[in-house]
Amino acid sequence: MSAKLIYKDIAVGAAEDASVSSVSADARSDVTKLPSGVIHPDFATLELNKWGGSGTKKIYKGQEAALVSKAMSGADCLFSAPPSLSIQFNSNYTTLGITFRFATDSVDYPSSLTLAWYQGAALLSQKTFHPDGVNYFCENTVTAFNRLVVTINATNLPYRYARMEQIVFGIVREFNGSEIGSADILQEVNLISAEISINTLNWSLQSRSGVDYIFQARQPIYAYNGNSLIGVFYIDDGAKQLTDKSYSIPCTDAAGVLDASPFEAVMYSGKNAVAALNEIVGGDFGLEVDSSLLSATVSGLNPKGTKRTAIQQIAFAIGAVVDTSGTEKIKVYPAPSSDPAAVPSTRVYEAGAISTDSIVTAVIVTYHTYTAGSGASGDDVITVGGVKYVHTTGTVRLNNPNVTASDKANIKTVDAAMLVNASNAAAVAARVYAYYERRSTLSSRIVVAGERPGDYVSVPTKYNGTVTGNIESMKIRLSNTTAANITVKAVNK
User: Fold this and answer.
1) Among candidates 255, 270, 384, which has minimal Cα distance to 307?
2) Would residue 14 count as lying in a domain?
3) Which of 142, 168, 194 is the last residue before a domain boundary?
4) Contact at 8 Å (CB) between 176 and 2?
5) Domain that includes residue 406, residue range
6) Residue 370 falls within a domain, yes or no?
7) N or C end of the chain: which has fewer CB within 10 A?
8) Residue 380 CB neighbours (<10 A)
9) Which pLDDT value is given to residue 164?
C-alpha cells in the first residue's frame, strides 16, 4: 500500500469564524452551511434539461442546500442580476486562494465568478475566475483579509440556477511518492495515563510544482497508509523552506496543540467526566469517549496547567487511555485486555527483543481531600475560583506479595494525581499496581496493517514464542511498505 499525506493549506479558524449572508439565495438555501459543506441532490426543476423521466433528478422535499440562486441564467448563460454572497470574519486571514465545490451530483458550475477580498472597507484584491469543473481553486494570495464577496457572473449551461455546496478558505493538497522526501511518525499511549504523549509527524516536502505554500501553525496534515488513516497532525511553528521547492515541516497531534493552551484550576465535586473533558477541549477537536465511561465522575482539584495536563488528570482518575491515532478526534477509552488481534509472522521482521523491568515491590498512591474553609494555622489552604479549601492527604499502599529477600526496594509512588480521592484511591492503586506487574516489553518491527497504539495484540517472536499485550509505542516511517518499530507492554503468562 502506498503512503500519502493530505495537507489542508487553509486559513485555520476561518471556517468557524465565517459569517455568510446572501440576498440572492432562494428559500431552499442555507448559506451558513457553505464553510462546512452540504451535498445537494440533483433537483428536478424547471431549468433546461433538469426535468425528465429517467429518475436521476430528485424532487425537492426539504433536502439541505447551501446555495441555490433565486435567479436563473439566460440563454447566453449570463445573469441579468448576478447573484452574490458576502462572508464576514471577526479576525484577519491569509490564504493562497479559495476553493469551491459547486456540485457533487450534477454537472453545474459557474463559468465566471468574481472574488473581492477586503480588510474593513479597503479593497485588497479583486479577480475574475473561469472555473472548468464542479471543483475549482481560485488561486490568488491575499494577506490579512476579513471580508470576501463572491459574485457569480455566469453558469456553464444556459437557463440554470447558480449552485454552490462548499467554500474552503485555502486548498487541499495531496502528496505521495517522491514528493514526500521523508515522513517519520511517533505515536504513543500510556495505558494508565500517567502522562499523555504528544504524537509527532516530521516530514519533508520535495515539491514537483511551482506553487506557493503558506505553512501556518495548526494547519492539519492527514497521514495515510493506503486508505487507512494513521493520524491527523498540525503544523508546528518550526516549518522551514530549505530550497526553492524543499520544505521541512514538523507537526504535532491534538495533544500537542492543547499543550500550548493554558488551563486554570477548577474544583470538581461529582462532575461528569465527559462534561469536564468537553469543557477542556472546548470544541477545538472532536471527542470520542467509550460508552463504558459515560457515567464516570471526578471530584477534587484539576490544577492549573495546560489543557493537555488537565485531560491527563481526568483520564488517570477514571482509568482511561487518551489517544489520537487513526482518527480526527481525541479518543478516551479503557485499555483493551481481551481478544488480541494476531499479527501474522509474514508481517513481522526477524527476531524481536524482550526487556524486563525490575520487580516493583510496592505501589503508594496519595489521595487528596479538599474542604471548603480557611482552616487553621499551618493548614495547606488553596484558593480556587475565589473559594478557599483546606487540602489534606492520605495514602493507599499495595505491597507485592512475591518479593524475595534478594529483591531491592522499588516503590512506585503517585502523589500529583489531584483527582484521586478517598473514594477512588483503592481502584486507582489497583490499576497502577496491575500496570507495573507487567514487567516485560517486546520491541519488534512490523509491516503496518491498521495497528494503532493501545491495541491488544499477539506478536510472534523468533526465540520467545508469541507475546500478547498492548501496543504502547509506534515509530512509523511512511513509504510504499509502511513499517513501524513497536513496543508491546506484555501481559503476564
Assistant:
1) 255
2) no
3) 168
4) yes
5) 362-437
6) yes
7) C
8) 11
9) 96
